[in-house]
Amino acid sequence: MHPDLAAATERIVAMRARVASLPDDGVPVQEIEDVLCEGYAHALAGDAWLTRAEQRLHDLIDDTSLPIRGRDLRVLASEHGNFQRSVIALRLELERLRREHERAQAGSRARSS
């Protein structure tokens, strides 16, 4: 079973929407950092699942002692592809939030100078 990335992705999207609605001096930098850390942890868990799934695919293909399991291969390959798209979507949202975080930090430094 792979990790559920939808909630993490939704949290990042919600944080980005919240940041967009706030004035520059009202951006919660620490909260953004918390959301980024949590999101990166989910992305790493997703990467780990993808690696295990890829190994399982190789095992199904390469192990001559196992009968070829076409259905198992198709199901796992499909699940891997769908989940990989979820990981990519999560990482894209993380990158967008990271850029907003950098802008917020730069604005905070400029105001304090």
Outline the structure in words.
The protein has 113 residues and is mostly helical. It has one domain. Helices cover 82% and strands 0% of the residues. The termini are far apart. The mean pLDDT is 90.
Question: How is the secondary structure organized here?
Answer:
Blueprint: H1 6-21, H2 29-62, H3 70-112
Helix pairs in contact: 1-2, 1-3, 2-3
Brief overview, please?
The protein is mainly α and 113 residues long. It is rod-shaped.
Structural category is mainly alpha
The major sheet is characterized as: none
Low-confidence stretches at least 5 residues in length (pLDDT < 50)?
none
As for the number of domains, it is: 1
Shape: rod-shaped
The end-to-end distance, rounded to whole angstroms, is 50 Å
Taking all Cα atoms into account, the compactness measure Rg is 19 Å
- Determine the strand fraction and express it as a percent band: under 5%
Number of strands: 0
Helix and strand pattern: HHH
How confident is the prediction overall: mean pLDDT? 90
- Helix proportion: over 70%
With helices defined by DSSP (H or I, 4 residues minimum), what is the helix count?
Answer: 3
Question: Which features would summarize this protein structure in a list?
Answer:
rod-shaped, 113 residues
